[in-house]
Amino acid sequence: MRKQYQEMAQIHKVLGDPIRIEIIDILSYGARCVCHLLESFSITQPTLSYHLKLLEKNQIIHASKKGTWVYYELNYKFLNAFYEEFKY
After folding, report:
1. Residues with Cβ < 8 Å from 8, sequence gap 6 or more?
2. Is the pLDDT score of 3 beyond 80?
3. What angle do CA 17, 22, 28 make, to 5 degrees?
């Protein structure tokens, strides 16, 4: 059970950043490539990549390559399961 709490705390830590919350909000409308995400922020591409990697590492988003572009989308299966933990 303790490991489960540690994992939940890690997810909340990742979600505790305003830029990552905004990324999630943007992706809630559908998959986006990095180039489109970058237009929404006044940060550098490496900084955006850092935030995307953290979200992907923690299973909050998926990345898929289409041609030369990498698209990111929300991992609804994980997010739904994560928030189910708080129902009881």
Report:
1. 82, 85
2. no
3. 130
Single pTM value for the model: 0.87
Three-state SS at 32: strand
DSSP code string of 51-81: HHHHHHHTTSEEEEEETTEEEEEE-HHHHHH
Rounded CA separation 67/86 (Å): 39
For residues 10 and 86, the model is more confident at 10
Domain count, the chain: 1
Yes or no: say if 60 and 18 are a contact pair by the CB < 8 Å rule.
no
Residue ranges making up the domain that contains 43: 2-84
Residues 6+ apart with CB under 8 A from 14: 20, 54, 55, 58, 60
Q: Residue 51 belongs to a domain with what CATH number?
A: 1.10.10.10
